[in-house]
Amino acid sequence: MAEQFRTCPTTGLKIHKPAETLIRVNAVAAVVCLLVGGLAALLILLTRWPAVHLLNEEWFYRLLTAHALDMLIAWIIFFEVAGLYFGATVLLNNRLPAPKVGWVAFILMIVGGALINYTVLVGEATVAFTSYVPLKASPTYYLGVILFAVGALTAVLHFFAALIVAKKEKTYEGSLPMVTFGLMCAGVIAVLTLLHGAAIYIPTFLWSLNGQWGIPNDFFPGIDPMIYRLVWWGLGHPSQQINVCAMVSMWYLIATLTTGAKPLNEKLCRTAFLLYVLFINVASEHHLLVDPALSIWHKIVNTSYVMHLAVLASMIHAFAVPAMVEVALRKKGFTKGLFEWLKKAPWGNPAFASMFISLMGFGFVGGITGVTFGTEQISIIRHNTWSITGHFHGTVVLGTTLAFMGITYYIVPLIFRRQIFSETMAKLSPYFFGGGVFIFANAMMFAGGYGVPRRHWDITFAGASIPFQFDPTVFFFIALTGLGGLLAIVGGALYVLNTVASVFIGKKIQ
Amino acid sequence: MSDHKEGFEAPGTFVIALVFLAVFVVVYVVNFKLLSNIWEIR
Lengths: 510, 42
Description:
Radius of gyration of chain A: 23 Å
Number of strands of chain A: 2
Largest sheet of chain A: 2 strands, antiparallel
Shape of chain A: globular
Radius of gyration of chain B: 18 Å
Distance between the termini of chain B: 60 Å
Number of strands of chain B: 0
Helix content of chain B: 55-70%
Distance between the termini of chain A: 22 Å
Shape of chain B: rod-shaped
Oligomer: heterodimer
């Protein structure tokens, strides 16, 4: 057993070699998905910008679907699986109980992801991320989603098995470390989320088989669109809450690694994680606020009351993390005035910069707008506008993606045993990416405020039988969205190039 | 273990929290104002 471990000479952490390999392959797959999704993002951005309008409508909708799946699902879940294995092994001096199961999970996710991308890119699944019925994709698409989800569920269950092994073999003392605890909460939400996914995608897959692959047309009855929307959002929204939980765990980890900070009140932080587990799933209902099929009572209870308990959790974390950083930096002597600690914080460390920009962006851009647009009355003016796209780019891109980018600068030396290829690229990336997404998301929200729709190929409605023109102000905000998006893509490209270069040609660390 | 002590340990973060609250109030009120412009009570 001992030969399966190595000890990191810098951190002293015991690393299980089979787990290390699985962390590596999942992290590499994540970055590849980020690259594919990022290329799609560039082309979509240059199409939504009326001054450029690059793609035809067919390719626009194909790439929009691929972009959402590669970014919201593949990049983030591959990275989270790497994070789960890291949290259950490296942070607990533990082993992965069944590495072969980890490989099965990884292969299922790769095959599922490849099937999804292939089907979308050949034009057989232009159904957008939500794939609302009666829109129907090729069965291959649903099969890809199911395979990916089964792989992800297998990885999550493997993570829980590793936690049981760690407890049984007493590889750590006391309670689970905060970061692993947060990842465990993400794991619980992941199981609930993936069960919702199975509940909706398996019948939809069977329905899509009607008339395909030699199967009779009446093989499976139709899917009720309302039931589809309700159950689908039990997958669609909580899947983003897995991200939130994992992102917050990364905030705590990066804050500790970069400034030596410790949570001021661990019990409060752990309680906040539990609030996510208990209340975030019902918050999915805010996607259905303008849906005529649900009762007002149902909508108000779920979104105006219960949802705020999950919001409370985010607010606790969003202030616990800067507070612990402030206390740690004040102890180092940065006590002048209210903000000397912030001014003298390690802004040159890309992990810290990523974490702090992610934290502020998630709260100020994604969080405030999420609560506001998720209010029952306000939803009526924001639903299906570009404001919603702006909001979730504030949470998932400015928040989660940037936090994951930040932790990469520690994972590469520790797990890949390579030095970061270019310190300059690493230092610039969070500012380009964070600044770009900040401009991009806010400009989108302003344009959405004028009624600009989301997921629309041509908002000038050229050639439409009933002409319509938006207030000319929207074109200023669309141009701003384009410029912010390009800046973000430069930041993302710096991250991807630097990470790939570090992994393959970075200086080896013994 | 936490290093919690008596007193106001993170005043800067408290100010950030107040700014956050102020931005939230502004965004919330502006959105209700926009709603009221198109959804008048007569």
